[in-house]
Design brief:
The protein has helices at about 5-15, 20-30, 40-45, 80-90, 90-100, 115-120, 145-155, 160-165, 165-175, 190-200, 245-255, 270-280, and strands spanning about 5, 30-35, 35-40, 50-55, 60-65, 80, 105-110, 110-115, 125, 135-140, 180, 185-190, 210, 220-225, 230-235, 235, 240, 260-265. With about 290 residues, the chain is α+β, with helices and mostly antiparallel strands. A four-stranded mixed β-sheet has the order 13-14-15-18, with helices on both faces. The longest helix has 13 residues, at about 245-255.
Length: about 290
């Protein structure tokens, strides 16, 4: 736990009631509430919050003793999809589509449901009392979220590279040039990725290539399959196989954020007809 302390201990240090501090942290967008308890948001992580696991008390959030709660950056009010859209000159339907593509909400018969990832960026579940339809509202920090802003830029057809704040991603793309053209027009970085991309295309599986994970960190996934809300990672390149240490590091990111992941090893590329259908089916994706 190092020098970080629990929310209750921090409240005592500041001569506050624990409930008062929890509400202050929620208003600032540092934590969110789920059915299972308090969730640390990406904003809270930026200010030093982290999870710890205790043998007696289970998992809880700890903070630096000198935690800065930046209440001036938020009004404490929530924003609807319509209100978010007004900030970006998009209608509510387009905003919900972008939020769904980012994996922060999902569509069900009774409306929009907040996902585990959506909770970490300040999504709150609401229900219309008359119709029973579910919908989402958002902490106002969502309009500053760089992944949402990046998606809006890309969706609007602007020059994403010129506007991107993710310089590490731009450098990565320059260092590892995507030079292999697939059947559906994607340019990929390795022959293994080309074979996988072509297989997905020929089997009717909608996919995005080189998709940034919807998190604060700069992490690219080889493929994203939106119909199953699952990412696909190929552990190989034209110069060799990805090391086990690197694989474990990337896997931890997926596990930490509860992102579903399908993995393909280099030796499996020649057996995609045998290995991929079953792995896709587990996420409700049918390959022709």
């Amino acid at each position: 736990m190092s020098d970080k302390i629990s929310t209750t201990a921090l409240a005592k240090l500041r001569s506050l009631e624990a409930k008062e501090l929890f509400n202050e942290l929620k208003t600032a967008g540092y934590i969110n509430r789920s059915e299972d308890g308090w969730v640390l948001t990406e904003l809270g992580s930026k200010f030093g919050g982290e999870y710890v696991n205790h043998t007696k008390f289970g998992q809880f959030i700890v903070w630096p003793e000198n935690l800065l709660i930046d209440s001036d950056a938020t009004s404490g009010k929530t924003l609807s999809a319509t209100q978010i859209g007004q900030r970006f000159s998009l209608n509510a339907k387009k905003i919900n589509q972008l939020l769904q593509e980012l994996g922060w909400i999902e569509k069900a018969e009774d409306g929009w449901h907040i996902t585990a990832s959506g909770l970490t960026v300040g999504g709150y579940q609401r229900e219309d009392k008359e119709s029973g339809q579910k919908f989402a509202v958002w902490h106002d920090s969502i309009v500053r979220n760089k992944r949402l802003r990046q998606s809006v830029v890309e969706f609007s057809g602007q020059d994403a590279e010129a506007h991107a704040t993710d310089k590490s991603i731009s450098s990565f793309r320059q260092k590892f040039e995507a030079k292999h053209r697939t059947l559906d027009g994607h340019y990929v970085r390795s022959k293994g990725e080309l074979i996988i991309d072509n297989w997905l295309y020929m089997n009717g599986v909608v996919h995005a290539y080189d998709r940034q994970l919807p998190i604060e960190q700069d992490v690219l996934s080889d493929f994203y399959l939106p119909s199953g809300k699952v990412y696909l990672q190929y552990w190989g390149s034209d110069t060799g196989e990805v090391s086990e240490a690197e694989r474990q590091s990337i896997r931890q990111v997926y596990e930490q954020h509860n992102f579903a992941l399908i993995e393909v090893m280099p030796e499996e590329v020649s057996q995609l007809d045998d290995v991929l259908p079953a792995r896709l089916k587990a996420f409700g994706i049918k390959a022709y």
